[in-house]
Amino acid sequence: MAILAGLLGVLIVFFGLLYALFHEDYLQRFLSPAAFIYMLALIGLLVCYELAIRHRIGRWLEQGRSVPDALRYLNAFVETSVPSVLIYLVSRETNPMHVLQSAAGFLYAVFIVLSTLRLDFRLSVFTGLVAAAEYVALSYAYLGAGGAAAGTPFDAPPFYLAKGAVLALAGLAAGFVAHQLKRRVGNAYRTLQERQRVLNAFGQQVSPSIVEELLKAGPEIASRRTFVCVMFMDIRDFTPLVENKSPEEIVAFQNVIFAEAVEIVNRNHGIINQFLGDGFMATFGAPLASDRDCANALAAARELVAGMRRLAQAGRIPPIAIGIGLHAGEAVSGNIGSALRKQYSITGNVVILASRIEQLNKDYGSQILASGEVLAAAGEPARGHQALGPVQVKGREQPIEIYRLA
Fold first, then answer.
1. In order of start, what are the domains of the chain with their CATH numbers?
2. How confident is the model at residue 47 (pLDDT cuts 50, 70, 90)?
3. Nearest to 350 by CA among 400, 388, 390, 389
């Protein structure tokens, strides 16, 4: 309706310019300026009508109400009848044959084309049939049986019947286009809904960039070997902290901590794979890898320590200490599970070692421990941190270099 009102406004300006430029020619062919006045008045009334109906329907849609079918068909009938009324009025001032072959007859096509935007096959066909019926009726009344076109090819019924058939066919074609548009718009809408559902499901756990990668990969994410940095975080002395709290208070306490953790990990391009009671496992480098995965993991670890301190200072949680362990190496990433339940997972010795390193925080009274592999991949000089020397880690025969960062 807004498009139609705009087009009609352009027509008013266009016809006004034609009248100003060809004023003398106009008066030679029309009995009086009345035809021009009829034309401008009718188009102006239709503009007002379209804007008023658009406002009313907009209010209904805002209120959650649907547009009655009867009103939609009535509105289509009114719009499509405008060229017929225009032909009737202007024919009173000049030869009807000239009017029927003028631009007024082409206005039917405008309404038929715009009917596709209603996305209703039947309404487009109805518009075409109304245009065809009214044009044929006017042609028969003015041109047939010795009318204004007597003695010319225009008085033959096949002439205007064929034109009416073309208008009806145009309505049918517009209906097919409307149906295809409706189907494709519906499919696109459902796709967006599904995409939003996935984003909502993953968005609280995975950074948006990783969600995009998972969506591109589809339901089957192939397993692949990749270099990752794995982080384990644990709340120190969690059991004494929650000993006298109700289950609801414990959950609220965890939610405050994990909300901060999720935001920090996501901001540093990591993914939290699992929440583990009073801690979590996070991965940097899968499914999206970059040359800054270890640097991002170190930045996230430092932000986590600062974030917990900030929450305690704000009085949202009691003062706590956390333990973070970081290790980097080759791992296999991808979906594991059955056809009924799958989970994106990281598997390999790097995961086990990162967990073991995190547990060493209890022995060293530290909050962040990282292996030499992490510092080397991040480009951080080892001499800037306290070296704990080659440390024997449970489950591994060879000791590994571990550094205390906090």
1. 2-198 (no CATH), 220-404 (3.30.70.1230)
2. confident
3. 400
